[in-house]
Amino acid sequence: MTEQADRHPRRRRRWPFLFLLALAVVSLLLHAAKLRRQGEVQGLCDQEAMMAVTRPVEKTKAQRARFYQIRYFLGYSMAASHATADLVRRVNAIVAPLRLLAVQIDPGVRDLGFELAVEVAGGSREVRRRLAVFLERLRNIHNVTLADLSRPGPTARGGGVRVFTVKGRAELQP
Amino acid sequence: MGKLACVLLRVLAVLAVLAAFVALDWYPTVKELGLLRRQRGDLERKIVEYASMAAKFNFPDQAERSILANAKAELDRALPLVENDAAWTAIGLVDLQARAREDLISHARFLFYWQIDSTKLGTDGPGGKDPLTGWISRQFVNIQDGFSIAFAPGGFPWHEVFSGSEFGRGQLASRPMCIIAMAPLPALLGFINRLSWGEARLEIVRLRLEPGMPLAKAWLVCRGNYRIAAPSPWLVKTGYGKGGENLLVDPDSPLLWQKVDPLLAPRVEKKELPAAGSPW
């Protein structure tokens, strides 16, 4: 009886220790799992970085993009000056019977913006017809993508002469 | 009663210890485990995607690598390397004077930004009154507008071309100048066309031309790009890379998956305008 009574308090004294041990084991297992997973993630990170080094898709794409940009830059100044001079030449060739007063061209990286000041003489119906014919011819120039009368309307110069502004865009063809 | 209280206290103590473990260790660890699992999943997916992308991608061979390197070398060679701004001015002026003589441009003036002031514009040229002087004075405001395009922040459109470029010596500079010329229209157009053929590689920023008989008049604001060894106010500032227009190449373009094809971006050759009288 005394022996049994002795064992019971001993067991009672031991269970807090066992309880804490169980908690610590769970913690240990959780941390072990975390460490293992961290190792896996690190390995995958290394693998990804290695792939980008050994098979550099993005870097190669950037190099290729730059090649095309360099080629474009190297040809641009000649292409722009040729397109500018050629546009003036073509407009001047089709402008009669209107009179070309001024041409302004702003070459952009991809196309040219232009503004023409044209003088038209005649009655209002005749002016409209001549202007329509000119605009039609202008739009038929192979690289002209847009051509339209600009607002505000014409300025009168007296003697039935009016000055119109035509704005448009033309492709830059290298 | 005392025994029950003792048991209750023990239960509370056990729960408190358990709660402490859960709150301070298990919960953060489980949370981190979840995060790591997601990271692992993302990385595995990325690796699979990258591998399948790389399998379809055309990686450069020696020939392509040499084409890419040549393009970079060509870019370096294309820009004149000068000691200072005055040296570039001299190159530009010599270039333009030779061009004007060759193209029989009867009257030509080359102005830099600081020279555009009305007092200097009223001077007579050698051999009598310069017929361009009056016109330049009338066009003064328009020419200033032309310069302002070149000076505008973001006005330099080639940032992407030069990004990451390491010039052996010197920094990239870009400077505007104005060319004013008067000549018969065909000669003037020929001059405008050939303007960019010289060493200064002038790019037209704005042209204004007034056809007239017998002489047509034009002014052009141009931009010259060069490499300069000395400090200069014309250095291209970084940070304005995304102007209104740029040369952004779509990174998803199938073109970039194939080896570069020089035929897709052919060299622009010097091209004359058709002879006078030709309809096109």
> Largest contact between protein chains?
A-B, 63 and 80 residues
Class computed from helices, strands and strand pairing of chain B: alpha+beta
Q: Largest sheet of chain B, if any?
A: 5 strands, mixed
CATH architecture of the largest domain in chain A: 2-Layer Sandwich
Q: What is the CATH architecture descriptor of the largest domain in chain B?
A: 2-Layer Sandwich
Largest sheet of chain A: 5 strands, antiparallel
Poorly predicted tracts of residues of chain B: 118-127, 241-245
**Helix and strand pattern of chain B:** HHEHEHHHHEHEE
Shape of chain B: elongated
Distance between the termini of chain B: 115 Å
Please write out the topology:
The complex is a heterodimer of chains A (174) and B (280).
Chain A: H1 2-54, H2 57-94, E1 99-107, E2 111-121, H3 124-140, E3 144-149, E4 155-158, E5 161-171
Antiparallel strand pairs in A: 1-2, 2-5, 3-5, 4-5
Chain B: H1 2-56, H2 62-78, E1 81-82, H3 85-102, E2 107-111, H4 118-121, H5 131-138, H6 140-151, H7 159-162, E3 171-183, H8 185-194, E4 203-210, E5 216-228
Parallel strand pairs in B: 1-5
Antiparallel strand pairs in B: 2-3, 3-5, 4-5
Key structural traits:
heterodimer, A: 174 residues, alpha+beta, Alpha-Beta Plaits, five-stranded antiparallel sheet, 3 helices, 62% helix, 24% strand, B: 280 residues, 2 domains, five-stranded mixed sheet, 8 helices, 5 strands, 46% helix, elongated
Protein described:
The complex is a heterodimer of chains A (174) and B (280). Chain A is an alpha+beta fold. Chain A has two domains: 2-55; 76-171, Ribosomal protein S6/Translation elongation factor EF1B (Alpha-Beta Plaits). Chain A is built from three helices and five strands, in the order H-H-E-E-H-E-E-E. Chain A has helices at residues 2-54, 57-94, 124-140; strands at residues 99-107, 111-121, 144-149, 155-158, 161-171. In chain A, strands 1, 2, 3, 4 and 5 form a five-stranded antiparallel beta sheet that branches. The longest helix of chain A has 53 residues, at 2-54. Chain A is rod-shaped, with a radius of gyration of 41 Å. The termini of chain A are far apart. The model of chain A has no long low-confidence stretch (mean pLDDT 87). With 280 residues, chain B is of the alpha+beta class. Chain B has two domains: 1-55; 80-242, Alpha-Beta Plaits. In chain B, 46% of the residues lie in helices and 15% in strands. Chain B contains eight helices and five strands. In chain B, strands 1, 2, 3, 4 and 5 form a five-stranded mixed beta sheet that branches. Chain B is elongated and about 125 Å long. The interface between A and B is large, with 63 and 80 residues. Strand 1 (99-107) of chain A pairs antiparallel with strand 4 of chain B, so a sheet runs across the interface.
